[in-house]
Amino acid sequence: MYGKKVKLRILFLSSVILISVLTIFLILKSLEENVVYFKSPTEIKSITELDDKKIRVGGVVKEGSILTSSKKINFIITDYKNEINVSFIGAVPNLFAEGKGVVAEGFLKDRNFLTAEKILAKHDENYMPPEVKKALEDN
């Protein structure tokens, strides 16, 4: 019914569509594992089930809460309603200070404690992530 040329075009187009769909699926699936959402301490307190996924907690470093030892630093992130205790091993950014905005990325032990793998800061000393700013304004 169809000629050889038409059959080859249909095969080629269906192959291209199938490969495109498969590629998009694989990209989205790999990103799903690496996507980390920002949460404020108040949002974390309202979580019903804790899972083992990486999470970002943002807020302000509470005044007088930074405790340092040789390589470990403990501090409290607050949104002025609730607080999360954070433990981090490693070097913190130079702009990390009390009363400044911070985002800590890591794993929750419970609703009150986060073991951070990364502390995020921006090069501008007055920088506050938009999510943190919005969460603070909401509270």
Would you give an account of this structure?
Helices cover 32% and strands 31% of the residues. The protein has helices at residues 4-34, 41-45, 130-138; strands at 38-39, 55-61, 67-68, 72-78, 83-89, 101-110, 113-120. It is elongated and about 80 Å long. The longest helix is centred in the N-terminal third of the chain and has 31 residues, at 4-34. The chain has a five-stranded mixed β-barrel with strand order 2-4-5-7-6. The protein has three helices and seven strands. It has two domains: 1-34; 38-138, Nucleic acid-binding proteins (OB fold (Dihydrolipoamide Acetyltransferase, E2P)). It is α+β, with helices and mostly antiparallel strands and 139 residues long.
Question: What characteristics describe this protein?
Answer:
alpha+beta, elongated, five-stranded mixed barrel, OB fold (Dihydrolipoamide Acetyltransferase, E2P), 2 domains
Please state the overall shape, judged from the principal axes of the Cα atoms: elongated
Give a quick account of the main beta sheet: strands, pairing sense, barrel closure. 5 strands, mixed, barrel
Q: What is the β-strand count?
A: 7
CATH H-level homologous superfamily name of the largest domain: Nucleic acid-binding proteins
Count of distinct structural domains: 2
Radius of gyration: 23 Å
Strand order of the largest sheet: 2-4-5-7-6
CATH class of the largest domain: Mainly Beta
Task: Decide which structural class fits the backbone.
Answer: alpha+beta
Give the CA-CA distance, first to last residue.
69 Å
Q: What is the annotated CATH architecture of the largest domain?
A: Beta Barrel
